[in-house]
Design a protein that fits this description.
It is a single chain. By secondary structure, this protein is α+β, with helices and mostly antiparallel strands. 33% of the residues lie in helices and 30% in strands. It has four helices and twelve strands; from the N terminus they run βββββββααββββααβ. It has helices at 61-77, 82-95, 137-150, 155-169, and strands at 9-11, 13-19, 22-27, 31-33, 36-39, 45-48, 53-59, 104-109, 114-117, 123-124, 130-134, 178-181. A five-stranded antiparallel sheet has the order 6-7-8-9-10. It is globular. It starts with 8 loop residues before the first strand and ends with a strand.
């Protein structure tokens, strides 16, 4: 018998694509615990910062919500400077004893920047115009990079097609998508 308290949470794929002045962020809706799908329509991306920032998460929902709130407070504190807000959140997240225990990754983007923020103090800006986090991120990222190189798809369509491919490969990613755009 498997001890349910020792099973792993697996959840989500979040993809952000930037193309021709547009930014799209999309996530699936699946939350998986061990070998059980607990929910299929979770919302893991949203707009914040008066609609100027897209944010998505992978990991624990409660932890992500706490991080969303802290990120938005940093964004406002730094006058809408996404880079500064991301760096300041990462510093707090790494140094604060309570925050350090939070298990999530954040993907944030505005019209200029895209960042992946982690609890280890990382603020990663992708070298191309696509970023992904979560269980299906390697599949979505590979698909997205190919689509960026060899098609003229717009940001929204490119993000959608990337996550669709991930959902066909990753058992922790479903095809119930939420998408936000700038």
């Amino acid at each position: 018998m498997i001890d349910s308290f020792k099973q792993d949470w697996h959840s989500t794929t979040v993809v952000c694509v930037r193309r021709n002045g547009k930014v799209a962020m999309i996530s699936d809706g699946q939350v998986t615990y061990g070998n059980t799908i607990l929910k299929g329509n979770a919302k893991k991306v949203r707009k914040m910062g008066d609609g100027k920032v897209l944010a998505g998460f992978a990991g624990s929902v409660a932890d992500a919500m706490a991080l969303f709130d802290r990120f938005e407070a940093k964004y406002r504190e730094w006058g809408g400077n996404l880079l500064k807000a991301a760096v300041e959140l990462a510093k707090d997240w790494r140094m604060d004893k309570i925050l350090r225990r939070l298990e999530a990754l954040l993907l944030v983007a505005d019209r200029e920047y895209t960042f992946i923020i982690s609890g280890t103090g990382e603020v990663i800006q992708p070298e191309d115009d696509i970023a992904a986090i979560g269980s299906g991120s390697p599949y979505a990222l590979a698909a997205g990079r190919a689509l960026l190189r060899y098609t003229d798809l717009d940001a929204k369509t490119l993000a959608l097609e990337s996550i669709k491919i991930a959902s066909e490969i990753c058992i922790y990613t479903n095809n119930n998508f939420t998408i936000e755009e700038l």
